[in-house]
Amino acid sequence: MPAAQQKEYKYQTVEGDPLKARIYTLDNGLTVYLSDYDDAPRIQTYIAVRAGSKNDPHTATGLAHYLEHMVFKGTSKLGTQNWAAEKPELDKIEALYEQYRSTRDAALRKKLYHQIDSVSSVAAKYAVANEYDKVMGAIGAKGSNAYTSVEQTVYQEDIPSNQLEKWAAVQAERMQEMVPRLFHTELEAVYEEKNRSLDSDFRKEFEALNSSLFQKHEYGTQTTIGTIEHLQNPSITEIKKYFGQYYVPNNVALCLSGDLDYDQTIQLIDQYFGKLQAKPVPTFTPAQEAPITAPLVKQILGPDAENVMLGFRFPGTASRDALVLRMIDKILSNGQAGLIDLDLNQKQTVLSAASFTDLNNDYSTHVLYATPRQGQSLTQVRDLLLGELAKVKKGDFPEWLIPAIINNEQLQRTRSYESNEARAGAFVAAFVAREDWKDYLKQFDDFATITKQDVMRVANEYYGPGYALVYKRTGQDSNKVKVVKPSITPVPVNREAASAFYKEVTAKTSPELQPVFLDYKKDIQETKLASGIPVYYTHNEENNLFNLYYALDLGTNNDPKLGLATDYLQYLGTGKYNAAQLQQEFYKLGCSFSVQSGQDRTFVSLSGLDSNFEQALQLFESLLAAPKPDAAALKNMVAGVLKARQDAKLNKGVILNQALVNYAKYGAKNPFTSQLSEKELKALKPEQLTALIQKLPTYQHRVLYYGPRATDALASTLNTTHRVPAKLTPVPANKDFAEQPMTDRKVYWVDYNMVQAEILFLSKGPMYDKGLIPTTSLYNEYFGGSMGSIVFQELRESKALAYSASSRFANADKVGRSSYNLSYIGTQSDKLPEAMAGMNTLLNDMPVAEANLQIAKNAIRNSIATERITKSDILFSYERAKRLGLDYDVRRDVYEQTPNMSFQDLQKFQQARVKGQPQTILVIGSKDRLNFKELAKYGQVQQLTLKEIFGY
User: Fold this and answer.
1) Would you list the DSSP string of 581-632?
2) Residues 884-916: tens digit of each pLDDT
3) Could you tell me if 71 and 189 are in contact, meaning their C-beta atoms sit under 8 angstroms apart?
4) Which residues of 423-449 are buried (b: 16+ CB within 10 A; e: fewer)?
5) Between the N and C ends of the chain, which has fewer C-beta atoms within 10 Å?
6) Full DSSP string of 890-909
C-alpha cells in the first residue's frame, strides 16, 4: 500500500462554512482546498501560483504571462518523443536567445534569429505539440486554460470525477518541471496577444489609469503582458529561473470543488504532488506610493467610442477599509438601486455608467466610468460621477440601502455557490490574498457590520482631490506600434506521435461513468393555470431562490418596436411608484425583473428570494399591466439609442460579428438592420410602447418555473396574480428573414484603424438536420473546437500565424433554417496572406490524424457521460429541443453514434459540406495595412461602408 494511503491527514474546517471545505497542508507546504458538491460527476480544478506580473523582473516584463504559456508545453517526459535528442537542441536555442537579447546590431540579430529558427526546426522533430491539450481532451476535461494577473497565475481544468488520478499525474508532472519547447512559435502567439491589446482601447485606458495611480509600485510601472522591447528580447534562462523560484509547493494551492471524496482525493493528491520539493520563495516588498494631491489626467486616443474613467487608490484587500470600499461600490452601482444606477442610468443623464473594484494584496483601486450622451462633454460626465461620490461622502443615500445590499450580496453568494467555478474560485481568492479560510469567510459577517458612519469615514478619507483621470477620445493613436513579424519556418506538430508518459497516463484504468440523459416527461412537471396557460416546472431542492419566466414566440422580426418597448420598461413606474422607487422596492425584496426580446422570442422574467415571491410578483404584474408613460424618459431613451448606434459603428466586434455576418447571411435587409429609422424613433409616442408591453401577457404564452415551492402553491399564486384576459390572442406568424444563397465567392471588407486583421470564412450548409448532429459534433471537436484541434495546431502551434484561430460547423437553432460553417483567424496584417492560405488549405484538405480522432471521440464521450443538465437549464434544454422539432435529449444520439464513426465518415461530411463550398470572406482591418491583391484570390473584393452594413 502506498505511504499516502496509510497517512492520516489533518485538515482545517470552519463551522457554518456553506462550502463545507476542508483545507489541508501537505508536508511540502502545498495547500489543498476541497469542497464536495455533487451536482454533476465533475470537478472544477484550479492550480493557483502566488506569482504574477508584479513579480516580473523589471528587465523582463511579461515574464509571468509568457511562462504561463510555456507551462502548457510539457516536461522532459510529457510532450517529447526523445528527450535525450531534444534537450541539446533546446539548450542551443536558450544560449542563442541570450546572445540575441544582448545584441543590438540589426544584421547580427537577424542572423541569430535565423539560427534560432533553424535549430527550432530540428528540436521540433522530437516534440509532440499540444500533448498536454491532447491528454486533457482524452480524459474529457473542459475549459482548459490559464490566466495571469498582477498577484497570481492560475491554471484551470473542469474534469470528470473518475479521471482525478490522471489529472493529478499530469499536473504534478508539469508543476515540477517546465521545458520551453516550441518557444519561438509560442512567442509569436504572445506577440499576437500584445497586438490585440494594442487594438483594445479599454486595455490601454486601464493601463494609463494604473500608471497614474501607481508610479512606484509594479501595479502601474509594468503590465502583465509586458513591453514590446522585452517581448522581442526574451530570456529562456530568466523564465526557468522564475519557474524555479515561484513554482514550488509552498507557494501553490490546489483548489477543487465538485463530486469528490475527501479522503480519497487528498490521498491521490499527496501521492503525486507530495514528491514536489519545497523551497524558500523570494520576498516581495511593495513600493510605498506617495499621496496624490491633485487629479492626474491622461488622454487615450483610439477608434472606439469616447468615455471617461476615474480611479481612486485604496489599501490592500485584507484591510477593513477595502471591505468598506466593496460596500461603497455597491452603494454606487449594484445594477438596480445604486446611486449611479438610478441617478445616471435610470434617469438617462449619461449613456451608461458603472463602477467596479480592483482588489489586490498591496493596494486596491476603485474605478468609475461612463459614456457620454450626444453633445455631452467628457468633463461634464466626470463631474456627474464626482457628484455621486459627493453624495456618498455626505451620507446622502437612504437608510435601507446598506441592509438591502447585505441581503442581496448574500443572495448572490448563495446563487454563485451553485457553481463549482465560484466555489473553487473562492479558494483561489483566499489563497492569493494570503487569508486564512476562517478569515475569508468572516469577511462576509464583517461586511454585514458596516454602517453609514463607516462608509462616510472611508469615503471622506480616500475620495479626495487626488485621483487618476483618463479621457478616452475617438481618434487615431499616433503612438500605436505593432510587434513586427519575424520570419518563422513552420515546425512539425507530429500528430501521430505520443510520449511514453502520455501512454502511461492514458492507460490508467478509471471507473466508468454512465451518462444521464434528460427525459423531458419525467424531469419537467407540467400543469395548467385556470386560464389554460401551460406551466413547465422543475423543483429547486438546494436553496430558496426562484426563476420565473413568461415565454412568448414573438419577437422583433414581427415588430422592431418591441425591442424598444422592452428597453423602455426599465425607465417606467406605476401609479404607486415612480421608476426609481420601483427598482428600490425590488432590490429591498432581493428580487429583480427583466424583459428581453429576441428575433422570434420574448422572455419576461422575475427572479430572487422565494420568501418574497408573492410581493415581487404583484409588483411586477402591476408594472406589466399599467406602466406609466413618460414622455421625457422616451425622449432621453431615443437620444440614447441614436448615440449607442453611433458608438456601435466604432466597435470592431459589432462590425465584424454582427453587422458583417448578418449582411453576408441575409443581405442589406436583415435582423441586425431591422430597426426604426431616426425619423421613426423621434415620432414614437410613449403610449405606443406601453401598449406593446401591456399586450404581451394577452398573447398565448407559457410559464417556466424553477424554484422551491410546490406546483399547486405556484399555480395558486399565479392564478390570483398573473393578469391575463379570459381568452388569449394567438401569436402572429413569425417573419423570418430570407437567407441569401451563397453561390459566388465574395470578400467583403470594412476599414478600421487597427494593428491586426480579423477574418471570418463563412459558407452555407444544409437546412437543420438532426441526423447530422453526431457527425458535426465529432467534426468540430476534431477539426476546430479546442487547443488540441487541427486548426489550432496548424495555424498557431506549427506556423505561428495567430493568437486565436477556430473553425466550427454551427447547426441551425431551429427547424427550417440553415447551418453555417464559420472559421475565424485574427492575425497581424502582414501575416494575412499566409493566414488566409493556411485556413483555406485546412478547410479544403482536412489532415488525417487517427490519434487526434480517437482523442476527439474520447473527449465527446467523457464529456457527455459526466455532464448533468440540472436546475433551470432543464427547462431551457426543452425549449431548444422544441424549436428543433425534438422531444428527446439529442445528446443520446451523439453519445451512442460517436464510437462507431471513422475518419471516412468525417471526410465524407467535410467533402460534402465544407470543402469547395462558395465562401463569403469577411475582413476587418486598416486599409493601409490590408493586402488587397491577396484578398482578390478568394473572390470578388468589395468594400462595404458602415452605413451599408448598419442600415443607418
Assistant:
1) HHHHHHHHTTEEEEEEE-SS-EEEEEEEEGGGHHHHHHHHHHHHH-----HH
2) 999 999 999 999 999 999 999 999 999 999 999
3) no
4) bbbbbbebbbbebebeebbebeeebee
5) N
6) THHHHHHHGGG--HHHHHHH
β-bridge pairing 545-552 and 602-609: antiparallel
Helix (H) or strand (E) holding 759: strand 756-767
Confidence band for 801, pLDDT divided at 50, 70 and 90 = confident
Q: Contacts for 495-498 with beta carbons within 8 Å, 24 or more apart?
A: 495/129, 495/793, 495/847, 495/849, 495/851, 495/852, 496/849, 496/850, 496/851, 497/81, 497/128, 498/128, 498/131, 498/851
CB 859 within 8 A of CB 781: yes
* DSSP assignment string, 677-693: -HHHHHH--HHHHHHHH
Q: Give the separation between CA 937 and CA 555, rounded to whole angstroms.
A: 40
The DSSP output letter for 453 is H
Looking at 499-612, list the stretches that DSSP marks H as alpha helix, in order from N- to C-terminal side.
500-506, 520-523, 561-568, 579-588
Q: How far apart are CA 721 and CA 151, in angstroms?
A: 51
Q: CA-to-CA distance for 148 and 68, rounded, in angstroms?
A: 7
In DSSP terms, 793 is beta-bridged to: none
Q: Which string of DSSP letters, residue by residue, matches 139-158?
A: TT-EEEEEEE-SS-EEEEEE
Segment 407-464, tens digit of pLDDT: 999 999 999 999 999 999 999 999 999 999 999 999 999 999 999 999 999 999 999 9
Alpha helices in 463-555 (DSSP H): 500-506, 520-523
Contact 393, 405 (CB under 8 A): no
Query: Among 849, 854, 864, 852, which residue's Cα sits nearest to residue 901?
Result: 854
Instruction: Determine the pLDDT at residue 4.
Output: 58
- Residue appearing with cell numbers 435610470: 346
Residue 764 predicted with pLDDT over 60: yes
Mark out the alpha helices in 247-316 (DSSP H runs). 262-273
Q: CB-side exposure of 235: number of CA atoms within 13 Å?
A: 21
Question: DSSP string covering 825-885, please?
Answer: EEEEGGGHHHHHHHHHHHHHSPPP-HHHHHHHHHHHHHHHHH----TTHHHHHHHHHHHTT
Asked if residue 879 has pLDDT above 50, the reply is: yes
Helices 83-102 and 106-124, interaxial angle, to 10°? 170
- In terms of residues, how long is the chain? 952
493 has a pLDDT exceeding 60? yes
Q: How far apart are the first and last CA of the chain?
A: 73
Concatenated DSSP letters of 251-265: GEEEEEEES--HHHH
pLDDT of 190 > 90? The answer is no
At 626, the amino acid letter reads A
Q: Which three cell numbers stand for residue 135?
A: 491528454
Q: Is the CB of residue 531 less than 8 Å from the CB of residue 727?
A: no
The answer on pLDDT for 188 being more than 90 is no
Alpha helices in 125-261, H assignment, sequence order: 131-138, 164-176, 183-198, 201-213, 218-221, 228-231, 236-246
Contact 54, 218 (CB under 8 A): yes
For residue 1, name the pLDDT band (cuts at 50, 70, 90).
very low
51-79 pLDDT, tens digit per residue, is 999 999 999 999 999 999 999 999 999 99
Q: Which grid coordinates are listed for 514?
A: 454512465
Cell of 866: 459526466
Could you tell me the three cell numbers for 736?
A: 423570418
How many Å apart are CA 793 and CA 784, to the nearest integer?
A: 9
- Res. 484 pLDDT band, cuts 50 70 90: low
Q: Is the model's pLDDT at 482 over the cut of 70? A: no
Is residue 940 scored above 90 in pLDDT? yes
